Amino acid sequence: MKKHAIDSETYRKLIELEYIADFRSCRDILENAVSSFEIPEGTDLEYEQAAAHLRLAIYNLICDEHVKYAECLDKAREVISETDILALSAQWLERSETHRAKVSELCDEFFKLVDEEYEGRDETSKYYFQLVTELRKRIRL
Fold first, then answer.
1. What domains, with CATH codes, occur in the chain?
2. pLDDT truncated to tens, each residue of the chain (141 aa)?
3. Is this prediction's pTM over 0.70?
């Protein structure tokens, strides 16, 4: 069985709490999970850990914890590319339905880094490009 940075029970609880828009509880649960990470360097779990920091950054943004948002974002940037950060942030923030203008801003920032003809460096990049393209269309309707 593959080990993950966030166990399935914690992940399930986060999804349930996101669904009812209890982002403070999401933040508290993920903050606790992040503080107990023991990830060996050089593993693909580093990306998962960075993604957890990014998700925590988004929860902090939603909860108006701007200093914590910046700290978590900095930790995510140590591993995740800026385009991936912008795409994931826009996706997670859009699901919260709270910061529509910020989602639009993140999409615009993404397209400052890549043009409309972006090919992507791998399948993940291609997926994020498509995701942000669709988000931008939806947010501007």
1. 1-80 (1.25.40), 81-141 (no CATH)
2. 456 778 889 989 999 998 898 999 999 999 999 888 777 777 778 888 899 999 999 999 999 999 999 999 999 999 998 998 999 899 888 887 777 888 888 989 999 988 777 777 788 888 888 899 998 888 876
3. yes
